[in-house]
Design a protein that fits this description.
Elements (H helix, E strand, L loop, with lengths): L2 H13 L2 H8 L3 H15 L4 E2 L6 E2 L1 H25 L7 E6 L1 H6 L1 H11 L4 E6 L2 H10 L4 E5 L2 H6 E16 L7 H7 L2 E4 L4 H12 L7 E4 L2 H9 L5 E4 H7 L3 E5 L6 E9 L8 H6 L7
Parallel strand pairs: 3-4, 3-5, 7-8
Antiparallel strand pairs: 1-2, 5-11, 6-9, 6-10, 6-11
């Protein structure tokens, strides 16, 4: 549909005559008339009662004018997007690992509401492996997840926060160290193939610590529930361990390099790769 014809129709409704629009726009009266006849033919509607001089809008014509105003307003919004290429527009699908959704999602959505009130963010929560699968397939535009070598290789990664790992052990445990825990009780192991579980497993291998007995879980809350119940010990990021500890001792591990980074991952080749900084900026505590 020709927007020019719709715009002329709205002008006629405002001015009240073909001649008045011709004078305002610098077009000939014949050109205005041709535009309206073309629009009527395209819509297969009678927009004007030409038994009057000047022609008046029919009831259908008045209804089309209302629709035309809405269409033209939306068209102007689209033009505005093209004038602001470096800001966020539209609807974004964002994934969060569960721990990040607890701590970072409220801040993200709060900043988004203030700074981009016309942008929609649809969020979901899943483990790192599932978020990466959805990023690869285009089901997500970006995801907040744990940094790994695989993530760095495949995606633009914008670090957001760093968390050190701690040892969470039952409240009545006499074990003084990670090695003692491994010898005396089961290891409540977070999924060792992904995210924080993979980092913890790699750390144990590097330290030459053998895993003797373990229960593998895919929920940090469940892992800490087992620690609280005295089932075994766990190695987890400090904020998560402390959040869910009710009957557990939290011990800081001495290795300062034993930590994880949470960040925003965006596919390198995606259409919104250039928006990675804008999206990451929404996690700032300060207004953008």
């Amino acid at each position: 549909m020709n927007l020019r014809g719709l715009n002329t129709l709205v002008e006629i409704a405002q001015v009240g005559s073909f001649a008045g629009v011709a004078e305002r726009t610098g077009l000939t009266l014949s050109a205005i008339s041709i535009q309206m006849k073309t629009l009527e033919a395209e819509l297969q509607l009678s927009l004007f009662d030409r038994s009057h001089r000047p022609p008046t809008l029919t009831p259908t014509g008045r209804q089309v004018v209302a629709y035309a105003r809405s269409i033209l307003a939306d068209a102007e919004k689209i033009r505005t997007i093209s004038k602001q290429p470096h800001t966020l527009h539209g609807t974004y699908q964002i994934g969060f690992v569960p721990t990040a959704s607890v701590r970072l999602m409220p801040q993200f959505l709060s900043n988004a509401r203030v700074n981009y009130p016309n942008v929609t963010f649809q969020v979901e929560s899943a483990l790192t492996s599932e978020l990466m699968r959805k990023l690869r397939s285009g089901l997500l535009d970006a995801a907040v997840l744990t940094e790994t070598a695989e993530v760095e290789a495949e995606f633009i990664f914008k670090p957001l926060t760093t968390e050190r790992f701690v040892l969470a052990k039952p409240y009545d445990s006499d074990a003084d160290s990670l090695q003692d825990c491994m010898k005396t009780m089961p290891f409540i192991q977070f999924a060792p193939s992904i995210g924080i579980g993979a980092i913890a497993a790699s750390h144990l291998r590097d330290k030459g610590i053998e895993i003797r007995q373990s229960h593998i879980l895919d929920s940090i809350e469940a892992a800490m529930g087992c620690v609280n119940a005295g089932v075994g010990f766990a190695i987890l990021p400090e904020p998560d361990a402390r959040r869910y500890a009710t009957r557990a001792n939290i011990q800081v591990l001495g290795d300062k390099d034993f930590h994880r980074r949470i960040g925003l991952a965006v596919p390198i080749s995606s259409a919104i790769a250039g928006k990675a900084n804008d999206l990451a900026g929404l996690f700032s505590l300060d207004e953008i």
